[in-house]
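Subject: mismatched residue count in predicted assembly?

I count 541 residues in my input, but I want to confirm that the predicted structure covers every chain. Input:
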Amino acid sequence: MRVGLVALSGVRVANPALAELGVTLPQFVSRGEVVASLPSLSLTTLAAVTPPEVDLQYIEVGDVEAGNKLSTDFDLVAFSSYTAQAYEMYEIADRFRQSGVPVVIGGLHASQVPAEAKEHADAVCIGEGEQLWPRVLQDFARDGVSGLAPFYREDAPGTYDLRTAPAPRFDLLLDRPYNRITVQTSRGCPLDCEFCGASRLYGPKYRQKTPEQALSELAEVQRLWGANAFVELADDNSFANPAWTRRFLEGLSSLQLRWFTETDLSIADDANLLRSLYRTGCRQVLIGLESPRSANLDGLDRANWKYKRRDQYKDSITRIQDHGVAVNGCFVVGNDGDDEGVFEEIRDFVDDCDLLETQVTILTPFPGTRLYQRLEAEGRLLYDRFWDRCTLFDVVFEPKKMTAEALAEGHMQLMREIYDDARTRRRRRHYIDIIKQLEPAADGNDQGAS
Amino acid sequence: MNTQVAGRITGIIHSITKVPTDKLGADVDLRAELAIDSLSGLQIIAAVEKEFAIIVPDDQLGDYFTIRQIVQMVDKLCAEGAAGTTAEQGE
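Triage response: the counts match. Full output below for your records.
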């Protein structure tokens, strides 16, 4: 049986003015380039639970044109994409089906709108793939396309035990130009923020691979890509479990990797953890700060954790960065508490905290989220069909305290200011000065932060 | 190119990025060809500043893509530093 695993790669921006602006702001575009070139962890994971007798091909396509040039010499093709690329995925899937190749669609988007995905597929997987994909293959091997169920669902969504998960087939990614290789150590997040799509798929239960599993995958990445591999941990929060974190970092020190992950500001409370992060090669953490305005944080997550933490934002950022770990602070604009003054407020906050990297996205109602349901109920969605605008950089709803046009223009102006030459220079110099303080002096005495 | 300076810079880059030294040719584009990320690039500049006791002007921090360019920058800043010291001593 010959099976194709097809991922839609790249980032999308519908607003042509913002796409044009991105070209002129090198630091703004650099994170986009990294994200655009990340491999599909979901499909390499499916590959790992595919029986060895199946002839697998892992394929990435950047757009419909490339997708329509793909060979149709497959018995079965499986797709995964994010929401912004869903229409493109459907178009390519339709072509395969017209050519007589059965199609299976899964992933974050399809799991939220399975009936929509089913219009372009013979079967849709709803939920995490490790348990569903082997059933798809079994049914297909036995009875062909007629053996496929229209929908495959998990018996108990959000409970798959990651400790039993096989390592993704990293070997399928060799000889491709990735800036970073992704490794996942955990799924699920108890915060369940209103806008979060991943929380809908993975659920509130925080599940982790064992530290040994995660370290084994990292060692495999290093074996395949060499000592200079740069790893991105594809977690929503890698460090929610302190005991796990300690064991993981102890093991990581021997690998000498350079890595990046996502976490929350609580890491600032643990100086030992911060020292370990730097020593083990963690160079940046992405943290969802969401907004400098307390009112926007109030009620955002179920425990109101971010709201309670707001007063410590600046001190926490400073402590983390002073240990050599850059904070990529993420903000969302377009919240109901945002008027046109919020853009200036974010810019000033970023300056005041000396944030070494900043990401500002526009509030986006992804399908299945509580935010989508609320905005739909309030009649504030601007389009009937807008998945291609769910890019995080396009406005798809009517904001409460400004116009949609003001939100789009305010976001662009904020990008221009945050990534202007003077601020970029200042950020670079700040990071260099921190690193010079941390690195051992020529006589071997470590004068690092403590 | 100043080979002694180049050797020290190659050692710094290897120590930070773990890229094997045989891949660190003088004209290899560190970002495009070796995928060295921007933060590692700044770490390299920090180590170079410390190693050669120089300060790279802030408006040039993103200008260096190859070892040859870094060597030229170090040579220039060291020469300027030496000239400045001589001038101060002569005053």
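The interface with chain B takes residues 26-27, 30, 34, 177-180, 226-228, 230, 256, 258, 283-284, 326, 421, 424-426, 428-429, 431-433, 435-436, 439, 442 of chain A (CB under 8 Å). Marking this ticket as 'not a bug'.
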